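As the next step, I selected for study one protein, both as residues and as discrete backbone shape codes, as given directly below:
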Amino acid sequence: MAKKEVKTDLWVYDLLKQAGIDLDPQGSTIKEIDEALKSASKRGTGNVGFPEYVGVVKDYLLVIEDKSDLSKHIKRDDNGNISEDTSSIIDYAVNGAFFYGKHLARTTSYKKIIAFGVSGDEKKHKIAPLYIDETEFYRELPEVESFISFNEENIDEYYIREILKETTAQEKETAEILKDASILHEDLRNYGNLLDTEKPLIVSGILLALRESEYKNFSVDDLTGDSVKTDGQKIYDAINANLRRANVSPEVKKDKILSQFAFIRDTVKLNEIDPKLKKTPLRHFAEYLNTKIYRSIRYMSSAEDYIGRFYGEFMSYSGGDGQTLGIILTPKHITQLFCDLADLQPTDIVFDPCCGTAGFLIAAMHNMLAKTDDRAQKKSIRQRQLHGIEMRPNMFTIATTNMILRGDGKSNLINDDFFKQDAGKLQLKQATVGMMNPPYSQGSRQNPDLYEMSFVEHLLDSLVVGARCIVIVPQSSMTGKTKEEQALKENILKHHTLEGVISLSKDTFYGVGTIPCIAVFTAGEPHPEAKVCKFINFENDGYKVAAHVGLVETESAKDKKQHLLDVWFDRIEAETKFCVKTTIEATDEWLHSFYYFNDEIPTEADFIKTIGDYLTFEFSMVMQGREYLFKEDGNAQLG
């Protein structure tokens, strides 16, 4: 076997290992497959033949054939189908994989076969999956960057989405959440006459009260419309009890939170029996939340920020104050990506100084808890290792409630202005990871403290030396258009290190109109002149906008995210169109588009196509009587 082929085989082996997939090279330890391969010669002789890798994940048979040369990826016949002649099967990766897949479909009991044609190397490659069933029918599937979608955890979801083209259970659940949010929003409007800022508060307040039902101190059935002790008073008392049970302290903090829920107790319309409902609006909302939402939050362990999702839905329905205040709630896949980029460990202390509904802190908590089995450490994570600041009282209340509902034990949140906090004192929290989505578009020459980079600098100054700091900000903040922003960038590099910037899709904050990026820093270590940073174009992230739903995950999202992380952590190389590695200046625009250059050497096929296009253009012009365009005497006249 050629040296190049061996190198490709080893690279594919590494990809399989990273995905947690164990396949056999050049044969199979499964007797049925091994017997079938004894007559699988690609030359059609009936002798033995081995693909590069073969094996089983759940009830799917996976087979891989690879070639080191990209030009040997696939050969098609005159009808555009995969060629099945002997030379094509021998010489081309996809054709060989197709051959082995069909052979195994015919000679084994496996009914679901996914064959992969792989060509190239770790920097420039193609991985093309094919689905082959027991009838030897095949379907070409979208190319992938890794095998992450085909491990035990993900392969069923891939099969449902990409092969059956059906909706997964998770997608159905998301659709239900959106539907439930829409219905609840309508009811809050129709039966409560509530302000936009009150809608998420009534949701979070009732959820806290429902938490007391586990201790037999509250029940939806208690909400009878009594005029002496109103339904609102009963809910308010249950909220108060649950805040005490959650050990929310000091007392002034608990009182701040309770004051946000006072309108539930004091609003007459909420506590009167509605003639249409035949019950109070509060009982109606409590019944709905108990059935549709509460059980999901309490009994699911995902990092999903449910109350945040509801808040986002309410804002989108009502056209509330979100954009005018620069409030942009962070999607779940971004909060999870932050955790992955930070490589969170159970010993980390996480700080979010603009925590909103606490989405980053919830994601961090779940990621850290998943990495330890030590009960004492789990308790420490919940009670001591998650810190946040939120300035707006209503959002602070929602964040605190969200953390309590997720079982953080003791919510270390502060209701204050981040810029009023001394960075030196904040360092005493010993935060090793900073995460932030600051308010957008609030800064100006008259008020430079509110530029996004001002928030970034203050966060970096508030972390321990060597801490990882990850922020999501508008791409415009990375360009430093104003003198004030330029000075902020220069000062950041004097005291901290930029690791890289990841440009995101324009739809990340769907409906807002902000094009964001993720910037990663190391705190407290001045940026070395020779430091090489990564600038990544992650606009194609595997998410799409779906009508009436918003941004949804496609099957390629996991694969694309895995590729991003592999490049970020230097596990693989990437083409410059995806990642540019370079030193930087403070005056640069810290974005992939600023540093990108096309280093791709044109292939012979590219050259032939370009010449063909030119000759076609020249012929067209001559036929139109414009042959003077191609004269070489320099006297051509343009008409």
In short: Confidence is low (pLDDT under 50) at residues 318-326. The chain has 23 helices and 17 strands. Residues 10 and 16 are 10 Å apart (CA to CA). The first strand starts at residue 24 and ends at 25.
